[in-house]
Amino acid sequence: MKKRSIKDRITLDPIMTLLILIVATIVLSGFLHLLGTHVTYNKIASDVNIEYTQGLVSVESLFSLSGLKYIFTNTVSNFISFTPLSSLIIILIGIGVMEKSGFLKTAITLLTKKAKKKNVTFVLVLICLLSSIMGNLPYVIMIPLSALIFEYGRRNPYIGIISSFAALSAGTGLSVLFTATDSELLINTLLGSHMINSSYALGTTAFIFIMLVAIIILAFVITSVTENFIVPRLPKYEFPESSLEEDLTINKKELKGLVLAGLAGLVYLLIFIYCIIPGLPLSGALLDNTKLFYIDKLFSPTSFFSHGFVFVVTMLFIILGFFYGIGAKTIRNNKDFCDDLGHSLDGIGKTLVLIFLASTFISIFKKTGIGEVITAALVNILTIEGLGAFPLIVILFIITAISTLFLPNSSFKWSIMAGIAVPTLMNIGISPEFSQTIFRFGESVTMGITPLMAYYCIYLAYLEKYNQSSKPINLFKTLRYQMPYTMLVGIILLALLIVWFIIGLPIGINGVTTI
Question: In whole angstroms, how far apart are CA 332 and each of 70, 94, 251, 260, 489?
Fold first, then answer.
């Protein structure tokens, strides 16, 4: 028997790594609390007379009796309410029907059979970047689908998982259309701008030009990094002999199934789209009409779309898989259909454990307030006197990227930063909308390398699912896969900001770089 090396023996399973991070966070919070760690920062009071107040953030110790009580009393509820858990399970029901019925295999074969490998990667990456309009939901849709797209295309599923996650996380702050998150950020941006100019106003199209350019450039960059750097370094993926011997041609039954599924899916989508169009007879039933902006009517926290979109997508997947199965004769009775519903849920025990520990780690870290303290401390750097436009652009970009590692929540992070960042940059002639753009670009850089981002566990779980090695997929190895993307995305987005500022191009419709 071959003796395992010391490196093999000490390779930590991601479950064990998360356990260590949980314990380390608890101990660290106790130590920092003992030192009295806290930070004050300028916060804007949002009353009639807009003025600065002193905000205070401090580290809360969980290395105490009250901390242990919090952990024991909230862990289960945090897990149950953890959005990636419910979203993933529901989406997998729909994906299971599409996969088991044969719809995915046939559709992917038809779309990719004659396509170049790089083109498939590029289209996938572009879709992931553009999908940021839907918030975090694409993580639970695109990562499982990306793995299957590459597996059916007879390429390593890791390529799809890694590249889709890189694009999704890079697309966090990039959106051609005004998103619900942008709407929340804009409130604090305008609040900060009113410290200097009480009549300053912004529209929903103020960011469209620079966002479009950034998305197009990053689509090419992420594709290039994937194909030229990541793919050659991935372990070889062994496909089952049966799959290698399968004919990639589509027969009449499969074609009939695709046509039937396409028609059924089209009818479903038309009905759904009609329900989100305002102003037509009996339309707009799925909108939150209490909101001002259309994007908020779709994705506000109280909207049907926000709460029900995962189920809407799942039903689409089920319809596509079901009608394909009827047409292709792969679903012959109710037992076949019911078995298909649970197909993708087979063997996800370890995935559930990973999600449980991830939810616990995120909840504990958030409760300590360490992320808030770090963010507040970093944003105070902007108050150093004598800094010019270019240093402030670079500093805001960098501190946003660093803060995102510890506080991924965009709205919460900007609520701490905007009160200092926006007025400071306005005082040297940088517009509030450009400040928000710098912030959005900065958080796009590091969102993919922080396990504190709720959907990182989906990426981790799927790398583990397709891991064929006898060794577990180490958490730090999953981070290393994302590092090349992080470095290049950071360089390109910062360069794009500086070039845009120098030239003075409008960043959107009625959106400027300087005032």
Answer: 51, 18, 18, 15, 49
Domain-embedded: residue 514: no
What's the token pair of residue 500? 């845009």
The Cβ-side half-sphere exposure at 173, using a 13 Å CA radius, reads: 30
| CA–CA dist 328, 160 (Å, integer) | 27
- Phi, psi for residue 57 in degrees, rounded to 5: -125, 140
Q: Is 512 domain-assigned?
A: no
Task: Say how far apart CA 160 and CA 465 lie, in whole Å.
Answer: 13
- The residue ranges of the chain whose pLDDT is under 50 are 1-2, 5-8
> How many domains does the chain divide into?
1
Q: What is the pLDDT of residue 10?
A: 56
Q: Half-sphere exposure of 507 toward its Cβ, with a 13 Å CA cutoff?
A: 31
| pLDDT tens sequence across 9-65 | 557 889 999 999 999 999 999 999 999 999 998 887 765 566 778 889 999 999 999
Residue 378 near residue 402, CB atoms below 8 Å: yes
- Residue 1 domain-assigned? no
Question: For residue 513, is it within any domain?
Answer: no
What pLDDT is stored for residue 272 in this prediction?
85
Q: What are the beta bridge partners of residue 162?
A: none
Digit-coded pLDDT (tens) for 420-450: 999 999 999 999 999 999 999 999 999 999 9
Total residue count of the chain as it appears in this document: 515
Spatial separation of the C-alpha atoms in residues 283 and 278, rounded to whole Å: 6
Neighbours of 243 (CB within 10 A): 11
228 vs 69: CA distance, rounded Å:
50
CB atoms closer than 10 angstroms to residue 188? 23
**H helix intervals, 380-474:** 389-406, 410-426, 432-446, 456-465
Q: Do 466 and 478 form a contact (C-beta atoms < 8 A)?
A: no
Nearest CA-CA partner of 192 in 460, 423, 471, 370? 423
Domain hosting residue 170, numbered range: 6-503
Tally Cβ neighbours within 10 Å of residue 290. Answer: 10
pTM of the model: 0.92
In which residue are the tokens 């040297």 written? 428
